[in-house]
Design goal:
Layout (H helix, E strand, L loop, with lengths): L6 H22 L6 H14 L3 E5 L2 H11 L7 E4 L5 H9 L3 E4 L10 H10 L3 E5 L10 H11 L2 E5 L7 E2 L2 E2 L6 E5 L13 E5 L2 H10 L4 E3 L2 E2 L10 H13 L1 H18 L5 E2 L7 E2 L5 E5 L3 H10 L24 E2 L4 H9 E4 L7 H12 L3
Parallel strand pairs: 2-3, 2-4, 3-15, 4-5, 5-8
Antiparallel strand pairs: 1-9, 6-7, 6-13, 8-9, 10-11, 12-14, 14-16
Bound molecules: pyridoxal-5'-phosphate.
Pyridoxal-5'-phosphate (PLP) binds next to helix 3 and helix 4.
Amino acid sequence: MIQLNDFGREYGDIGQELLACADVVLKSGYYVLGEFVASFEKDLANYWHLPWAVGCGNGLDAIEIGLRVAGLKAGEKVLTTPLSAFATTLAIIRAGGTPVFVDVDVNGNLDLDLAEAALSADASIRYMVPVHLYGIPLDLNRLTRIKKKFHIIIVEDCAQAIGALFDNQAVGSVGEMAAVSFYPTKNLGAIGDGGAILGKSESFRRRAMSLRNYGQSSRYVHEVLGMNSRLDELHAAMLDYILKYQLGKYITRRKEIAATYLKRIKNSLIKLPSIDSACQPVWHLFPIIVSGDRQKFMDYCKQNNIQTAVHYPVLITDQKALSSVRFEIYGTLKQARFMANHEVSIPIHPYLTEQEVECVIQTLCFYT
Ligand SMILES: *Cc1c(COP(=O)(O)O)cnc(C)c1O
């Protein structure tokens, strides 16, 4: 089976190095918020060319912390997308915000024309959580203009997009803060849960450090009600290794596979992502749009030993968990709904072999 992720192969490749990282942490006898988290935060901020990074328990918490640090108050509106991991919206709600959903574009990313229209129509929207979905960056020039025009505060959800560039600018550098997840399947994946919030303002950094650790400003002094959302030393040591020695290679390989797919998958029933020349995705996922019966296509792939998935089959606005929550929808969610019904993700992890890539291409080209 050609899998969507292959952790066994990653273990074969760097298992010994990760075990060595674990050994150093175990021997240190210090497991929470120590020197490994501090070094990883420094290295991550340097990698991202941002002033600071604060490690958190996961990506969900990183977004919540970002919004709380930025001053979001109960009931304030936050513009976002209905097509994402549920965590994007859950973080907004947990931070006290009221999500305002706007439709997506042909690639499934937040439609910035509609976002601008929503911000023009409703001046009470002061925050925005855009998502660089599938690792495909939004138009950052456009996002910059929107931010300046409406003076909104942006926390970019970069959970799927670490390393992605638009016009040579990194995702996460337009907003006040960038949130990232180290969930195992993400491009920079841990061996469990982890996340980080990155930003520019020093006062935001101090508040993020406090919020992740019970709202503690100095030992046993609590000025706000915080969370327990700390990154473990064990994860930080391994993540630092992957960041330094593997992430660049992983991203290069994902881009290589995507370029091959874009060039060679030819089938009138399959629509590939359409990528602007300024846009440099990191391909966390490779989404395609399939005409006709999606389940039939997925069954066909399975019969040909190719694992597929759907990102995402249900819009966030349609989730039962939101039935008792205040939210708004600007316009219609027609394109998002279309994506939810027709998107399929095909394998693109960095440990795919040439033969496997070839097999995916042939299988998709011969689908009828
Ligand atoms: C994975 C993900 C999150 C949440 O990250 P966790 O670490 O799983 O909490 C948020 N947003 C997006 C777009 C994601 O893909």
